[in-house]
Amino acid sequence: MVSAAGTNEKVGFNSWCPFLIFDSMQKLKELAQKIRKIGKDDPRRVLHSLKVGLALTLISIFYYVKPLFHGLGASTMWAVLTVVVVMEYTVGGTLSKGLNRAFATLLAGALGLGAHHLAALAGDKGEPILLDVFVFMLAAMATFSRFVPEIKARHDYGVTIFILTFSLVAVSSYRVEELIKLAYQRLSTVAIGVATCLCTSMFVFPVWAGEDLHMLVAANLDKLACFLQGMGMEYFGEKMESESLEGKSFLQSYKTVLNSKATEDSLANFARWEPGHGRFSFRHPCNQYLKIGAVTRQCACSIEALNAYISTLQQSHQTTTDLEFKQKVQAACAEMSMETGKALTELASSIREMKWSSTAGKHLAVATEAACRVKALVPADNSTLQEVLISATTTSLLTEVVRCTNPVIAAVEELSRLAEFKRPEHGRKAGAESPPHVVIDIKK
Amino acid sequence: MVSAAGTNEKVGFNSWCPFLIFDSMQKLKELAQKIRKIGKDDPRRVLHSLKVGLALTLISIFYYVKPLFHGLGASTMWAVLTVVVVMEYTVGGTLSKGLNRAFATLLAGALGLGAHHLAALAGDKGEPILLDVFVFMLAAMATFSRFVPEIKARHDYGVTIFILTFSLVAVSSYRVEELIKLAYQRLSTVAIGVATCLCTSMFVFPVWAGEDLHMLVAANLDKLACFLQGMGMEYFGEKMESESLEGKSFLQSYKTVLNSKATEDSLANFARWEPGHGRFSFRHPCNQYLKIGAVTRQCACSIEALNAYISTLQQSHQTTTDLEFKQKVQAACAEMSMETGKALTELASSIREMKWSSTAGKHLAVATEAACRVKALVPADNSTLQEVLISATTTSLLTEVVRCTNPVIAAVEELSRLAEFKRPEHGRKAGAESPPHVVIDIKK
């Protein structure tokens, strides 16, 4: 028994040890692959990392070189701090943070000095109390101002630095003798830090938020086009729905467009701070990109509805009786889908090359013509049939909403189990017999 | 002439001056109203502002009281800095930032000391060079790690503080004699700052991110329900589409749901840091809320499609010929819409009260029954008509996509004018005659 256990242990150890090494080697390998992929997806990320290192190395020279060090004293540290905090991925981000930091420091420093002189009038005992009152009031007011959407969007960081600097200057005014010198040192080190960041950010492989926004908007249009052209080819095309669409990549790629608002907003916000560069002038119309983004998302929403309807349709098998009618509709749908896709591709490349062409409008006109052709298949004087068709569409859309509610119920039901919601007594008994929610299956 | 001009000026000044005062009074009034509205919409904002003031006042006492001050020296300032930077609106936000800051400071401080001892081996001249190499390498690697999505989401701030502290300790190790003392002071002041923030944040009117997420998810369900019930009453209801829906508030309120992902993600991210409180245990299933959010948005998307279709339909006037058929469809649609709305309301209140009820499933079952009833209006053996109906729906959805592309073209065209895109020579001439893009109007 003992020997057996011993053997087991030995075997366990021998087989375990290489396994552990192998396992951690495997994990390291995966991590390395992941990191390589992040760098490969956008090589500017590697450059940005090196740029941060460069900016920090530049600023630390200030510290090592004696004459520079003695001028500014220990507050050179503020310059290092500024570089780490202000350096952002895009030029606009760095500019936004840097200018916010510099101006907030200047303003708050001046106000802090004023508060110190005012508080000094109150005598030795009154000074700290008065200073505290000032700090409390200014901090509370400034914090509240961050809830104003316009300030939140553009000056959130500036307000933080404002509170910070005011508190630092006001509070330390009670102990530090040479307050003016402290304020001057802080301001100049912050200025040095911001200048270093801006130079590194703008002149060493700059990443412009405006250009990223430009490319993102074009890429989103391309994703929608990709779906429509894929549909036009694979679903409405000559294969006639014979193959299942499952697993096709074009069915998924447009979904990221639906959630692109936050990225677009933040890029546009940074782009507003950027000076003119390359093909972009200083007053480049950032807001127009946001408008394009909004209508693109609306388009993505109607594509989502189409996709949902088609994927439900694919699950039910339809028998074709009137082949001619079906072929006509199918051909028109293929044309609508392909041409709209072409129009969107055209728009994307028009944005990318900053060259307007009216081809997009022409493609869309062809698509519209195809849509009218389908409508003409139903004789205009047969108003009963037309009414039936409209009712059918409305009902289908509403049915889609009902169907969409099903997963919502399932998800909330799962939450109710995970978070241990209360359940009514009689419901628990009933729950044992019937499924927790009604599974709905509407046959098309 | 002169006197006339003089009179004019006088009149100008007299009428201008009160106008200026009036104008700025008006603006001040508007600002005050805006600020009051922000505070009224969520009174916790006012409390949060006061809490920031309170935390700062508490920490400044450290500075004023002599015994405390002498223990930590001038680095008490780090405590003030920590409070300003770490204090967030929600408890989860403060915890996330505070813990990130504390652990990053600890780790980077230790590494910085190690780097100092290693660099000291290289002699007086080699030391700054070696320190710079360390700072460059660590800053570059840490910055790159911020591009890893998992680190970006949860430890972005920690990485910043890591770079910051390491640079500060490593760089200043060249000049500062008592490095250990500096590192200890920095760590303890950061800890004091974080502790102050956490106490104020958790014990004085706490705002829990988990609870906000909980309420947001429920509110979003309510918004969808509001649309469906509004539609069921006003459009499908007894009034029979007689009135225009324009300007109804329920047509707009659900639109914010479409863009709620960013807010939900950030709240869930903060909520993960929060300890148990009230009805929420420590391991409250945050991810499940994100899942509910995702399916809710999908539901909102299909509602958007329905809304778009109906609003186009309202613009074209349909004559009713088969009143009986229409009434049947309308009644079924009203039931589908109302019952789905009720199901969503039920789910929202079930989340809010943390009490599961199976009523939502029952409402949805009624809605599904109504959907089947409409389908039954078309005889199942009439497969030609069924095919026509399916084709009609697919075409309608595709037409909606084509229609949605129209504003995209218009928006890109506007961008091309604002950003002065190149235009082909012959296009410019043609442009003078024809409108810049083809306006598409598909009659329903």
From TrEMBL, chains A, B:
Keywords: Ion channel, Ion transport, Membrane, Transmembrane, Transmembrane helix, Transport. It is found in: Membrane. The chain crosses the membrane at residues 46-65, 71-91, 103-123, 157-176, 188-209. InterPro entries: ALMT. It holds the Pfam family ALMT. It is a multi-pass membrane protein. It comes from the Eukaryota. Its main location: membrane. This is Aluminum-activated malate transporter 1. It comes from Dendrobium thyrsiflorum.
